[in-house]
């Protein structure tokens, strides 16, 4: 074993063994003296090992064998004390059932005592020999120094993030963005490359580019065949122009790239698709066909930039000693401009103000002198590893090498794995939960910048992270003698000292030669059925994960794995949980999620007395008697039943529960007193609580009173962050929901920490009192049919859906400054929304299906100056929306305004002052008689939809005047336009000649008489790619100038009843989709091969006429995302959705 990790490994194991032997000393019947001696010998060697670490005598020729032998002995010692502890647990379980009266009375106790005594005696002899040899190596006993109890960390939001992302890269980000959005390049697939050495920041720049382009990132796994990956990309990218980021590319094989490129070209025929590549190799950029002008080289950061990163990582926003400024600059100059190195070095000095520590890094010439070499960066990164403050922390980091590169490590599971391996021992005599130690270690590794790319849940807590590729290389380097990942093509002789094995591929498994390699395994991850592939000795295994593996049963010998602490069979095809699992007394974590073929729960689970975390998501797998598992911390689902062992009182003894808890079938709880037996108010570590009552709603007073009593009895602790209530049939809310108790010390608000609350399907709830939540809270209320009023004091987002009786929504004074989003949908009796006129912080308002809504705000004014989005859909008589643009000071931030299906709307206020407006939609408002003035002032407008307003008879003067001005600024940016479907009294039509050259998507709907002349106004729109024309009844032939639309790719012709001639279409060489519907004259004329117009359209790859596919090509192509057919604004013709599916996917 390598000395760099053996020291920490032995140190961790020795500490664990000493701790356990201390606990088990009183249980050592028959071998107490040997165990005492064993304890003393381990203490001695712990001091000797400390001397070896401090002297760093790793170059001594005899030290490495000595360390290897020590590692083997300590590993065996760990097994011995673990087996003693196992027997104690077995006794404890038997004693619970009154089967024994004294220790070691099971399974021939005399033989067990003799066996253990001999093993410990032999270990003592070996340890004594090692101790004597240590003297010859120049090692002396030192009093082992205590490792720090407090590990310095920064706030995670600053430490696990990447503060270097805005240091020295601003101009480069802009350059890459400019290459990607270059409109002069009309290639179907443009490749832009970023080239730079590892750790220089290519991935960070790529992420910033995505953020700047406001791209929606969708990760697609590449651990599969190219065919599967391309299929996934098709699902994500069809009908879209896409930017695909390929990070850290190494392929220099031109043929492989061409194969992928042809597949990407097949995803969409439209031009403008982009691929952004990051690579360390110039040859890769050339292979992928990146032109020189689109090849960006990331230069090294300046020394000042590196110092800025180091300083931020080390001290955050706090001040730092001035005496460190010069030292820090010297260190920064040694980073050679690499952002990753600066990040890691800064993280290793987190909150460290000791000058000597800074100097020790600066003066390490051996490391800094090699940074330009092949593994130079790795050596520098090892500085951070060496400076990790405890051996256990080093071991936790090294363990992460068992995951493949770019693997998303779930924080909760990672800590449970560390715990199972024995890395999370208390720092001192002061007791500390292993999970809390693991949380501290996770935060420390994040502070040291060894973890990155944090993912957070809705409460802001980190739930997952990754490691940078070079950091992963470091983890592999320090643990290469311990850890192995088997993938395709990795078959080889497996070293006999491997402790952690991850079998990802069955091919790799088949090619591997194990021999005795499994004898020392502590960890086995496998996605294949290893039991049928080889003979395995898993006696020492602590962690066994078959998540997603193709196995259908668990072999019986697993029940004899005395050391097993982590078992995951999630996503397998096993048909039962065998009873022998309950003999795994050391088991701490048991996961059996998504095991759909298991139909009955595990019996006797109460025997797993050490179980701390259990995961399952099927109601029928809820084990009985779970309340006996008093160590349990994670129980995400509890299903109440009336049988013994399933009542809610089982939760009462589980005082350590934390995280998320869902309690179902609360209608099975008898009364308030029984509900109080769950003792939720004492469970201060539960973060999210979901309370689900039965789905039967009989409306009886008994059910109503029952649910009110039960919910009152389920009062939970004020630390709760999320509360979800479903199927509650009470009429009122429990008192504790709005109660603020006053004690001698403080006011206790039971909702003060709540950031999310959801009420779903509470049919008899009539009102919700004032909710004093956190100012950033989100509240969802759905399907509460009888709810009449709600009042909110503290919240950020409010969603109300299908509350048919709702008449009042109120907010308190604090909410006026905190509420940012309001969504109200399907509240048919809501007549006004007066609260809107008081909310000063509102950014988004969405109202749908509120048929009686007549007023939004007091006097229809908005108090918010930061409103960005207003969507109103199907809201009856919204006749007084005067505040949308009446005062430019209150609407300058508005980016989207959409008013759809509001038939009572007769007019709209002016749009003057809406300088930020990008999208304007006014659709299906039959009562609207005039368009609003001020449209020419909307200089940022990109999408405009004014359609199917059948009473519209008037065009404002300012819009009419703009017709005569070529390309006015008002619509210069317009990309999408839908217009038409107005009153026949509107005789004039806006001259579309003033529309800018960016227009690509257009839907034109005729009205009035004559209709056919309308088309003449679009002949100059040569950039049009998608065109829909509808309801041109008098049109008999497409005009000759139709061939001018040279960019047209998709054409829909709908309900043009007199259209007969298509000759003008033959010039459209780029046209790929033609869909004709509601044009009876063309059905026979365009018949394939025989129709008089067929020759004019036969060159088009995809043709559908009257809902029949006439011609198709198998290559996927793009069609418009919105095609208006009728007054109901369907997205596609009735059966054209079949065409959409057909032409966007390969069969």
Structure description:
By secondary structure, the chain is of the alpha/beta class. It is 28% helix and 16% strand. It is built from 28 helices and 42 strands. It has a 20-stranded mixed sheet. Strands 8-9-10-11-12-13-14-15 form an eight-stranded parallel sheet. A four-stranded parallel sheet has the order 2-3-1-4. Helix 21 (506-511) links the parallel strand 9 and strand 10. The longest helix is centred in the first third of the chain and has 34 residues, at 63-96. Residues 100-106, 155-164, 740-748, 879-889 and 1114-1147 have low confidence and may be disordered. Residues 402-475 form the Disease resistance protein winged helix domain. GO terms for molecular function: ADP binding; ATP binding.
Percent helix: 25-40%
Name the average pLDDT: 79
Q: Structural class of the secondary structure composition?
A: alpha/beta
Radius of gyration: 35 Å
H/I helix tally: 28
Uncertain parts: 100-106, 155-164, 740-748, 879-889, 1114-1147
Distance between the termini: 53 Å
Indicate the overall shape: globular
Strand residue content: 15-25%
Number of strands: 42
How can the largest sheet be summarized?
A: 20 strands, mixed
Domain NB-ARC: 211-316
GO biological process, one term: defense response
Domain R13L1/DRL21-like LRR repeat region: 648-783, 1011-1079
Domain Disease resistance protein winged helix: 402-475
């Amino acid at each position: 074993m390598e000395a760099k990790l053996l020291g920490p490994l032995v140190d961790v194991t020795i500490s664990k063994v000493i701790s356990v032997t201390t606990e088990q000393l009183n249980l050592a019947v028959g071998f107490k003296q040997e165990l005492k001696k064993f304890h003393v010998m381990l203490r001695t060697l712990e001091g000797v090992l400390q001397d070896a670490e401090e002297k760093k005598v790793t170059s001594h020729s005899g030290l490495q064998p000595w360390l290897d032998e020590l590692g083997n002995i300590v590993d065996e010692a760990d097994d011995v004390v673990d087996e003693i502890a196992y027997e104690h647990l077995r006794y404890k379980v038997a004693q619970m059932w009154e089967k024994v009266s004294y220790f070691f009375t099971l399974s021939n106790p005399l033989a067990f005592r003799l066996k253990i005594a001999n093993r410990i005696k032999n270990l003592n002899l070996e340890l004594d020999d090692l101790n004597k040899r240590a003297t010859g190596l120049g090692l002396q006993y030192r009093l082992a120094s205590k490792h720090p109890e407090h590990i310095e960390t920064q706030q995670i939001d600053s430490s696990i993030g990447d503060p270097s992302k805005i240091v020295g890269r601003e101009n480069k980000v802009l350059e890459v963005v400019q290459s990607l959005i270059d409109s002069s390049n009309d290639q179907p697939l443009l490749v832009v490359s970023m080239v730079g050495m590892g750790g220089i920041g290519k991935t960070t720049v790529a992420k910033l580019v995505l953020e700047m382009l406001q791209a929606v990132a969708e990760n697609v796994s590449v651990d599969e065949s190219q065919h599967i990956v391309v299929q996934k990309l098709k699902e994500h990218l069809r009908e879209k122009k896409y930017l695909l980021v390929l990070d850290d590319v190494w392929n220099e094989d031109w043929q492989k790239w061409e194969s992928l490129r042809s597949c990407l070209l097949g995803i969409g025929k439209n031009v403008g698709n982009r691929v952004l590549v990051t690579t360390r190799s110039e040859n890769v950029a050339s292979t992928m066909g990146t032109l020189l002008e689109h090849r960006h080289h990331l230069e090294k950061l300046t020394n000042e930039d590196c110092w800025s990163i180091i300083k931020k990582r080390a001290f955050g926003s706090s001040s730092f000693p001035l005496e460190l400024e010069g030292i820090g600059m010297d260190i920064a100059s040694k980073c050679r401009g690499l952002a990753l190195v600066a990040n890691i070095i800064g993280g290793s000095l987190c909150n460290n103000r000791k000058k000597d520590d800074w100097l020790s890094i600066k003066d390490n010439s051996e490391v800094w002198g090699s940074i330009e070499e092949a593994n130079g960066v790795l050596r520098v990164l090892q500085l951070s590893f060496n400076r990790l403050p405890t051996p256990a922390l080093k071991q936790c980091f090294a363990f992460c090498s068992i995951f493949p590169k770019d693997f998303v490590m779930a924080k909760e599971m990672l800590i449970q794995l560390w715990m199972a391996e024995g890395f999370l021992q208390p720092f001192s005599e002061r007791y500390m939960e292993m999970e809390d130690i693991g949380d501290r270690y996770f935060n420390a590794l994040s502070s040291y910048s060894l973890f990155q790319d944090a993912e957070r849940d809705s409460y802001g807590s980190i739930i997952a992270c990754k490691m940078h590729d070079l950091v992963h290389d470091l983890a592999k380097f320090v643990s290469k003698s311990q850890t192995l990942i088997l993938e395709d093509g990795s078959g080889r002789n497996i070293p006999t000292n491997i402790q952690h094995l991850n079998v990802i591929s069955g091919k790799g498994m088949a090619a591997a030669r194990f021999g005795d390699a499994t004898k020392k395994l502590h960890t086995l991850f496998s996605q294949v059925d290893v039991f049928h592939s080889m003979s395995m000795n898993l006696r020492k295994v602590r962690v066994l994960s078959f998540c997603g593996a193709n196995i259908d049963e668990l072999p019986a010998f697993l029940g004899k794995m005395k050391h097993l602490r982590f078992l995951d069979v999630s996503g397998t095809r096993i048909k039962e949980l065998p009873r022998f699992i309950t003999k795994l007394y050391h088991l701490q974590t048991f996961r059996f999620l998504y095991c759909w073929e298991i139909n009955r729960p595990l019996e006797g689970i109460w025997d797993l007395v050490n179980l701390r975390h259990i995961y399952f998501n099927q109601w029928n797998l809820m084990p009985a008697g779970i309340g006996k598992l008093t160590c349990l911390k994670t129980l995400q689902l509890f299903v109440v039943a009336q049988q013994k062992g399933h009542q809610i009182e089982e939760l009462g003894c589980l005082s350590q529960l934390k995280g998320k808890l869902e309690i179902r079938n609360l209608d099975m709880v008898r009364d308030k007193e029984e509900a109080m037996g769950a003792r939720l108010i004492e469970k201060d570590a539960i973060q999210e609580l979901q309370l689900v009552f039965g789905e039967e709603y009989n409306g009886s007073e008994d059910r109503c009173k029952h649910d009110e009593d039960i919910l009152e009895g389920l009062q939970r602790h004020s630390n709760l962050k999320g509360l979800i209530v479903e199927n509650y049939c009470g009429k009122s809310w429990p008192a504790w929901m709005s109660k603020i108790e006053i004690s001698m010390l403080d006011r206790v608000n039971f909702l003060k920490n709540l950031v999310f609350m959801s009420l779903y399907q509470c049919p008899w709830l009539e009102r919700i009192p004032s909710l004093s939540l956190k100012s950033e809270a989100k509240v969802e209320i759905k399907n509460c049919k009888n709810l009449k009023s709600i009042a909110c004091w503290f919240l950020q987002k409010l969603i109300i859906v299908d509350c048919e009786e709702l008449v009042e929504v109120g907010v308190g004074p604090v909410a006026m400054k905190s509420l940012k989003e309001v969504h109200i949908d399907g509240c048919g009796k809501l007549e006004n929304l007066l609260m809107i006129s008081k909310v000063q912080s509102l950014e988004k308002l969405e109202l749908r299906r509120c048929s009686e809504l007549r007023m939004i705000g007091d006097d229809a004014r908005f108090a918010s100056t930061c409103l960005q989005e207003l969507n109103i859909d199907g809201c009856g008589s919204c006749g007084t929306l005067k505040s949308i643009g009446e005062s430019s000071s209150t609407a300058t931030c508005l980016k989207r305004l959409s008013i759809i299906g509001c038939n009572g709307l007769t007019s709209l206020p002016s749009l003057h002052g809406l300088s930020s407006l990008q999208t304007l939609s006014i659709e299906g408002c039959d009562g609207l008689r005039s368009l609003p003035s001020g449209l020419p002032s909307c200089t940022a407008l990109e999408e405009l939809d004014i359609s199917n307003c059948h009473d519209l008879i008037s065009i404002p003067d300012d819009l009419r005047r703009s017709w005569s001005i070529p390309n006015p600024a008002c619509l210069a940016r317009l990309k999408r336009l839908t217009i038409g479907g107005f009153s026949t009294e509107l005789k004039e039509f806006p001259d579309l000649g003033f529309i800018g050259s960016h227009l690509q998507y257009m839907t034109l709907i005729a009205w009035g008489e004559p209709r056919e002349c309308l088309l003449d106004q679009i002949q100059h729109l040569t950039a049009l790619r998608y065109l829909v024309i509808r309801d041109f009844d008098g049109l008999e032939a497409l005009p000759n100038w139709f061939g001018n639309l040279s960019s047209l790719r998709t054409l829909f012709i709908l309900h043009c009843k007199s259209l007969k001639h298509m000759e003008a279409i033959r010039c459209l060489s780029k046209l790929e989709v033609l869909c004709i519907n509601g044009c009876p004259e063309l059905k026979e004329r365009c018949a394939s091969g025989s129709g008089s117009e067929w020759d004019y359209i036969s060159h088009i790859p995809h043709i559908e006429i009257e809902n029949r596919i006439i011609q198709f090509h198998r290559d996927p192509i793009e069609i418009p995302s919105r095609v208006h057919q009728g007054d109901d604004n369907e997205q596609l013709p009735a059966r054209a959705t079949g065409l959409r599916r057909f032409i966007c996917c390969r069969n």
